[in-house]
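TODO from last week: model DNA ligase (NAD(+)).
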Amino acid sequence: MNDIKKTDSIESNNNQEIGFYEILRILETFGFNKLAYLESKRLKDIQNEYEKILKARDSYPFMLDGFVIVLNDLTLQEKLGFTQKAPRFACAYKFPASEAVVQILSVTPQVGRSGIITPVANFTPTPLDGANIARATLHNYKEIERKDIRLGDFCLLVRSGDVIPKITKVLTSRRNGSEVPIQKPTHCPVCAHELSFEDIFIYCTNPNCDAIIKTKLTHFASKKCLNIDGLGESIIALLVDKGYIKEFKDIFSLRLDALLELEGFKEKKAQNLLDSIESIVAKTPFWRFIHALGILHIGEVASKKLAQFGDGVFDMNVDSLCKIEGFGEQMASSFCDFCTHNREFIAELMDIIKPVIESKSVVSQDSISQDSAPQDSIFNGKTCVITGTFSKDREELKEILESFGAKVSSSVSKKTDFLLAGSNAGSKLQKATELGIKILDETEVKNLLNL
């Protein structure tokens, strides 16, 4: 009865009489676990609390990468609302990335689903914030050249956001002369096909490369796409190696007797996988279907916008797509090129999966409306260039910028409005400085994009 009265008091009071802090206190009386929180009107108190938690970071029974500052006034919270990614009334205050020194023992060329070859550094497993890290991306071979990273080098490893490991700095003072330059591959490490070089990237262009097939299928079945439970990277690799699947449609033709021949598969596991595959048919939101196709430059945000136009989106031209908020010519051309060359493939897959297509007037809140990009964003209608290394993947950052109405370019010119400069920024930073272009560091970018 007391609990009911407390609940009534939350609902009956105006937002002006009760704040977020008070709600947390009431929730504690209901038995919810208490975490450290502080109510304050002074920035100094926030900084003091930050330093206090940072010092005690390792004493918590879970990993911390920072804390959240939330506006207490519920009325103001409602007025500020949300972006497509996060609330405008809250922001994260991150801790510095954890660091360790590692020695690069070898570099493995890794093939992605678009065929891009990414160099990955291998080193002795190193404990960092509760995880043993043995690999870290070096992004691309131009980055290796710019940083002059060599085999045998001791480097600084950081775990940004306590999740993504990356090499940030070469400790040249620890070199002894035995270090060896890292060579660019000339042939795909998986299929031995001759590689193509384009700008800073190296590609395997063989569509039958097992690595490309496996990564495309893994993306297709992943949680952010079709979300097929039980069909992860290792199972897909096994199915491809056995010759059971090669294309997306093959997943829907898997048979129980074939699965039972695989190592580690008993009847229950095999049937669960088949049930999981069957469960997405006629139930998958259309934006997930688009995202699962793995179209270059078309990520989750873009897929949700495209889904609003129904299956007619596959017939839209570049000019029409460029009118969608956040779409630039590069994204529009990539989507159109894919549709032009894969019409039968798309139609066949649509017939198999039967994705749920909602009319534009009744798009769910899970989708992003065409006018969702904040019109008051400083990025709206501006040209941006990204350089250096960010804690977020560059393609993801590009997609977020475009959702805010920006056009993302690959080179700095007089037409550039903003240069987003991450760590280890190169010649683009120097050119932007010479041209007097506004330069934003990662902290400023995160604040402006509500990341």
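Done. The chain has 17 helices and 16 strands.
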